[in-house]
Amino acid sequence: MPENQLAAVKKEQRGILAPLFAEYTLNHMPAAALECGMGEAWTDDLENPQVAELVYPAFGITFIGGDVHAPAVRAYAAQIKAPKYIMPASQDWRGLLEELYPGRVVVNPRFAFSSASLDPQHLQTLAAPLPDGYQLKKFDLPLAQKLSQANYDFSPDHMTNFDSVEDFLARGFGYCILHQDEIVCVASTFAVSKQGMEIQINTDKSHQGKGLATITAAHLILESLEKGLDPSWDAATEKSANLAKKLGYTPGENHAMLILARSRLRAKLGKWLSQMDD
Distance between CA atoms of 272 and 101, rounded to whole angstroms? Predict the structure, then answer.
């Protein structure tokens, strides 16, 4: 099934795609799309789906599910348009893509963490101190509108997966730190499912190194636990992984984002840039 022939799946119909992502337990992103209508959903067959994409278009990330041995799935995979940033529902997808696109698949490691060992008392301790001149606030409508409308570098990283600022406040939550009435650090729910949420944190470069990310993250996680939501942490960088450990997360299963490059040369360049970042 060619990628461009996939059909959109309405929010209320997405439950039919759940079996295609049953093996995925690394974070709550697929569940947020399937259960809570976040992002976009596409499939080859609205009645008997064999392959599905769950797309978060603002970030260019696609979760792909389906049995890689099924003819319809292989037909779809053979027609994927590059570049594409893929989070596979099972490990079998990497082998299939490397078979179909030799030399064009870049593997970007990610680090999943378990929240099972989080200690509210430890988080309360981390949430307490605040440097002089800074103010912590929970997002309300004026603050959320300020973040959305102001030209902060990190504004596009927050609330984008929700239908509106009001939808974010109804289904999500977050904390920010202000300095001279400007937002300099944000921790918010990136996506929300019925069981848990994903965390997004950003600190303005000129205010980094002061523990602001730790403070906002601790408040966000505490509220998540109070609401009975699992605060998922999925790190793409060593810096993010170190913060997770500081907050009390324990390392879980390592996995990878697969980047399908337009050419072997671009794939080699991507791998070289990744090594440079390390």
Answer: 19
Report which of 217, 198, 110 is spatially closest to residue 159, judged by C-alpha positions. 198
| Tokens coding 2 | 């060619």
Q: Read off the DSSP letter of residue 262.
A: S
The two structure tokens encoding residue 229: 């939501």
Query: How many angstroms separate the CA atoms of 20 and 159, rounded?
Result: 27
Beta-ladder partners of 259: 85, 106
Q: What is the pLDDT of residue 274?
A: 54
Percentage of the chain surpassing pLDDT 70?
94
The most distant pair of C-alpha atoms in the chain lies apart, rounded to whole Å, by 62
- What mean pLDDT is predicted for residues 37-43? 97
Q: What is the pLDDT of residues 116-129, one digit of tens each?
A: 999 999 999 999 88
| Separation of alpha carbons 215 and 125, rounded Å | 9
Write the DSSP string, 78-108. Answer: TTPPSSEEEEESSTHHHHHHHHHSTT-EEEE
Question: Residue 121: what pLDDT?
Answer: 97
What gap in Å lies between CA 220 and CA 175, rounded to an integer? 7
